[in-house]
Design a protein that fits this description.
Elements: H1 3-15, E1 23-27, E2 32-37, E3 42-46, H2 48-51, H3 62-73, H4 89-103, H5 109-113, E4 118-121, H6 129-132, E5 141-145, H7 151-157, E6 161-165, H8 172-188, E7 194-198, H9 203-207, E8 212-216, H10 225-231, E9 237-241, H11 250-254, E10 259-263, H12 267-275, E11 286-290
Helix pairs in contact: 1-4
């Protein structure tokens, strides 16, 4: 099991009475897993067994797995014993979604301040990217872990050098598709810096060349976050973003993270991931947490 997740859960146990809380509903059939607790709290996490951009994708029957897990919940309400041994991506995503759900009350401004964590809610209709821009210096060499969030801000800021690392880039057709998409964006934003692509195998090497590293929250879902934060220890800014990092951030800040952009969960997430399929991330109700 993941040390970041385990220690976060241990922290939550000290802050919250979990005695009468149980998993009421969950969903492991889409790109993002969700969990809804008996008290109404909701959590989500990327599911790499559905997204499939890696070599260890676990093929499973989600309906059959859900039926089996619901039976376990009768004796193990929060599946604590079930998560002692994690052998698949969907199990990890379910564990992270549970921790996300349990974390939601702890992401309130007053509670965060108890640990000297500051926070700002992103106004409805405004992009979290606007909060990101002031954190970037035009002289920065940046590593972007996970194609997507943050890219436009780095192009707009015209950073000196940008490494884009994503597991999908091991597939030539996906790399070429994203390459031509980015070429268009470079022209749109008049980007004059240098861009390099990686499939994740050189993350340590490229991060060590960087001033700023921007990590997808889904690194918690695929088990790479611990190593990525170790590689980033000498970076001046370590920013984590995405719906999968909606957990109490104490263990992330202990490991060097400086800023977290994520969303506070609500019923909209269930509709987004269950009914729509969650093929993209939900960027509503965003919050910026920082030191």
């Amino acid at each position: 099991m993941d040390e970041i997740l385990n220690k976060t859960l241990d922290f939550i146990k000290k802050q919250t009475d979990l005695q009468n809380i149980y998993i009421k509903e969950f969903f492991i059939r889409a790109n993002f897993t969700f969990v809804k607790l008996s008290n109404g709290q909701i959590g989500t996490a990327g599911n790499y067994d559905v997204q499939g951009n890696h070599d260890r994708q676990f093929k499973y029957d989600p309906v059959r797995e859900e039926q089996g897990i619901y039976k376990l919940i009768k004796k193990d309400p929060l599946l604590i014993n079930y998560f002692k041994v994690i052998t698949s991506g969907f199990q990890r995503s379910l564990y992270l979604a549970l921790i996300s759900a349990l974390s939601q009350p702890l992401l309130k401004k007053n509670f965060l301040l108890k640990f000297s964590f500051k926070s700002t809610e992103i106004e409805s209709g405004k992009s979290w990217g606007e909060r990101l821009l002031p954190l970037i210096d035009v002289k920065d060499t940046v590593t972007l872990i996970g194609f997507g969030g943050g890219l436009l801000a780095f192009l707009q800021k015209n950073v000196k050098k940008l490494f884009i690392s994503d597991l999908m880039f091991k597939y030539k057709e996906k790399l070429l598709k994203k390459y031509f998409e980015i070429k268009k964006l470079m022209k749109t934003y008049n980007y004059t810096g240098e861009i390099n692509f990686s499939d994740g195998h050189k993350n340590e090497e490229i991060i060590k060349q960087s001033d700023l590293v921007f990590i997808t929250g889904s690194a918690l879902s695929n088990g790479t976050m611990e190593d990525l934060l170790k590689f980033s220890k000498n970076c001046s800014k370590i920013i984590i973003q995405g719906p999968s990092v909606s957990i109490f951030p104490i263990e992330l800040f202990k490991r060097g993270a400086t800023d977290i952009f994520t969303n506070i969960k609500n019923e909209r997430d269930i509709k987004f991931y269950k009914e729509i399929g969650g093929k993209t991330e939900d960027d509503s109700n965003y919050i910026h947490i920082f030191l």
